[in-house]
Design a protein that fits this description.
By secondary structure, this protein is of the alpha/beta class. The chain has one domain: 2-enoyl-CoA Hydratase, Chain A, domain 1. The protein contains 6 helices and 7 strands; from the N terminus they run E-H-E-H-E-H-E-E-H-H-E-H-E. Strands 1, 2, 3, 4, 5, 6 and 7 form a 7-stranded mixed β-sheet that branches.
Length: 153
């Protein structure tokens, strides 16, 4: 069974993923500009360790990259665009606690990219140092995806 995840990575998307897992989903088609990192972590934790195929198409940006990395089998279509950037949380005037949280979250995302991909932890951290756009072939080179595929269905 396939699940189509399009739009913001948010609590509604978490709910769709959890419901789909109850229904036996084994394949996810992902097209997202990203969203909340906490929601991305919830989806990542729910999908990790399962035999799930995730195919990114169109765009896989920001928190959506974390969602993609939860897949046991990861693919992207040839024209899919990726974006990584420094982690942030909302708030006008960040407190010391907010700054510590952002630092922790950045480390967690870099660790996921490193552990699921094929790049070193320092290289994963450099991907998060500034906005970095890249395509499917580079995503394959660094192990975010396993291969580029022409077919999503």
């Amino acid at each position: 069974m396939s699940l189509y995840l399009c739009g913001d990575v948010d609590e509604a998307m978490v709910g769709r993923v959890l419901t789909a897992l109850d229904e036996g989903v084994d394949r996810i088609i992902l097209n997202s500009e990203g969203g909340g990192i906490y929601s991305a972590f919830a989806i990542f934790d729910a999908l990790s360790g399962r035999n799930i195929t995730i195919i990114a198409t169109g765009k896989c940006m920001s928190a959506a990259v974390v969602v993609l990395l939860a897949g046991k089998h990861r693919y992207a279509t040839p024209h899919c665009r990726f974006l990584t950037h420094p982690v942030s949380i909302s708030g006008d005037t960040p407190s010391k606690a907010d700054e510590n949280e952002v630092s922790f979250l950045g480390y967690e995302v870099a660790e996921i990219i490193h552990s699921r991909g094929t790049i070193s932890l320092p290289k994963a951290r450099s991907l998060l140092a500034e906005e970095t756009y890249f395509g499917s072939n580079y995503a394959k080179t660094i192990g975010i995806i396993h291969d580029v595929t022409e077919r999503i269905i």
